[in-house]
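Record NADPH oxidase 3, 568 aa.
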Amino acid sequence: MPVCWILNESGSFVVALSWLAVNAYLFIDTFFWYTEEEAFFYTRVILGSTLAWARASAVCLNFNCMLILLPVSRNFISLVRGTSVCCRGPWRRQLDKNLNFHKLVAYGIAVNSVIHIVAHLFNLERYHLGQAKDAEGLLAALSKLGDAPNESYLNPVRTFYMGTTTELLMTVSGITGLGISLALVFIMTSSTEFIRRSSYELFWYTHHIFVFFFISLAIHGGGRIVRGQTPESLRLHNVTFCRDHYAEWQAAALCPVPQFSGKEPSAWKWALGPVVLYACERIIRFWRSHQEVVITKVVSHPSAVLELHMKKRDFKMAPGQYIFIQCPSVSPLEWHPFTLTSAPQEDFFSVHIRASGDWTEALLKAFGAEGQAPSELCSMPRLAVDGPFGGSLADVFHYPVSVCIATGIGVTPFASLLKSVWYKCCESQSLPELSKVYFYWICRDARAFEWFADLLLSLETRMSEQGKAHLLSYHIYLTGWDENQAIHIALHWDESLDVVTGLKQKTFYGRPNWNDEFKQIAYNHPSSSIGVFFCGSEAMSKTLQKMCRLYSSVDPRGVHFYYNKENF
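=>
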């Protein structure tokens, strides 16, 4: 594997490995502590090894619940990403993979939850068996503690005749544990790729059960079901000697009745910092959502694409960033991410929204994209905007050579980038690091090219006038056409301008041969660091990652491809 790719991917590997190592350390350390700690010797007599399994998984749960909110604190991520002290290169790119880390931590929560639940089900049954009539010896003696005055109990189950389910629902730990489990099931099942694509609203609403999840988590340990011997009792009651003289506990001065207490809840201590940080995040979002957004222009494009131009006080952006939009008339709670298609040099910011779900379809309908748009902008629905937030595409200008690849509506982030390049050319500004941009757009509908073709035409013209035509090399691929379109294309094939886009660069038909494309780029720039930026389908993302690995040189002085994917 090429050295550059190892460096490129080492960040993700190290982050995942570090996370796994901390989880393993916490689990193993806690497991052996509860296996050997003298204060829990009598607890282990009743519960056996499942005590250690329950407590070790609980600590790992606390650790992962501490982490789960950090990757989705967008303002915090943007702040870290924008600081000068932030690590650059492969490490900075990890901030663009925040949702991948969020999912990884969620899997950790799910695995440890299963271990914790199963262990406590065994614990509950063993507590129950400790009160059985045929229980004898030390087990029976420990289970009956608490019946007499001045005794503290060890076994929270006080009678054999009460059902396990009833016992579960009569404790704070049982009720909150059941609530946490149900919340986790709803959140995890609604987060699958299928649900998110087919019903984003269901995913969005169920994800906000996290509020109930964290409240229940904070009070879950309040039941103090797992109990251990108190420090004072350990000084007076020698476990090594007294465990064999349990029948004499009431009478022998050397072995007073052991006293027990529940472990103090600790989950809230783990989660408090991130919860406060996330609360601040939501306060900022709430404040931003009440800032006035003025809609200056609405354009309905073919292929069910809506273009919105907006203004907002003190709004500052960079190429490749994205915003979250809320439309109260469509849904008072839902926020959806959209990449900005305007350039920082423009006095407005814009987005292009394609109808691809219930919310976006309702938004297009509200703005009249499916029919006659309202003639007055003042009659448009109110919008709230949160952002902008940094994305991986903001690093395009940090490479000497950048390869930008988009499929379908995934072209929107590159509109901002290319507009910024256009303005820099108009203002005769230099691009100190960037010397070459390769742009690829693959789309199945010819009508989808219309709104973007004007930008490419302006860019093509301006760069020629400035003598910078070499800066941009663009390739447009049409993957879908009917018989009439094919005949029309064939009849106008020899014209100087492309029949589909009206550009000098002719449209390609079919899909790119990525082996040939990457081979040619590597040949053109033999000793360069090349940033590959992609926004589109997961299947093509895997193909491009493979190409970056394949065509990166093993020589540190050779060509290196660094893959970046836009994530929301």
